Amino acid sequence: MSYQHPQHPGWGQPQPPAPKKAGAGKIVGLSCLGVIGVFVVIGVIAALFGGTDDGSASGSNPAVTQDAAKSGNSEDAKADEVKEESAEDAPVTVTAKKVGFKKSILADGSDYTSVRITIANGGDKDLDVNPLYFTITDTNGGKHTAELGTDEDQIDTVKLAPGENITGTVTSKGTFTPKYVTYTDGLFGDGVRGDVS
């Protein structure tokens, strides 16, 4: 008599493959996608609340006077009114003058353009000043961001109390003729422009 062991179900038969676990690549990919999504949301919010390309806040351009409309010189009238408003009523004023570039040890080469900035806080709240809050627009309409640490006289990162001011340079890479400087207080602030003399 031969003794046979009872057969257990599944023994000797091929087993179905185990379900695959999510790999590290998928986890990293989803994490990167989440970070990119956050930046897109920040960009959309900045676009909604930010200023226009000319550095002024959207919707804040004064109306053209009737005299300017009659003379056909509405752009000049707008520019004059903006200058008068910024000089008298603006809580922040920016003045700018082109100066020679003073190379620091962090600069690679001498292909930079510097502008001496004086920013004054005429408002009733503290004002944050940072070289990264400035852009320089050239005579061809190109915008240039600040290059940190390249000029010896770079404007400091400070908090200005009401009535205080500070002077220093903002420097951008390249050689160009600066037309105006725009100061923007942080990510959502309004732009204040100062013509370069």
What is the total tally of β strands? 9
Helical percent range? Answer: 10-25%
User: Radius of gyration, Cα only, in angstroms?
Assistant: 30 Å
| N-to-C CA distance | 114 Å
Number of helices: 3
Mean pLDDT: 75
Strand content: 25-35%
Tell the overall outline. Answer: elongated
What do these coordinates show?
With 197 residues, this protein is an alpha+beta fold. The protein contains three helices and nine strands; from the N terminus they run H-H-H-E-E-E-E-E-E-E-E-E. The strands form three sheets. A four-stranded antiparallel β-sheet has the order 5-4-8-9, with no helix packed on it.
List the main descriptive attributes of the protein structure presented here.
197 residues, alpha+beta, four-stranded antiparallel β-sheet, three-stranded antiparallel β-sheet, 3 helices, 9 strands
Summarize the structure.
This protein is of the alpha+beta class and 197 residues long. Helices cover 24% and strands 27% of the residues. It is elongated and about 105 Å long.
Helices and strands, with pairings:
Elements (H helix, E strand, L loop, with lengths): L23 H26 L16 H6 L2 H15 L3 E8 L12 E10 L5 E3 L4 E5 L4 E3 L12 E3 L4 E9 L4 E7 L6 E5 L2
Antiparallel strand pairs: 1-2, 2-7, 3-6, 4-5, 4-8, 8-9
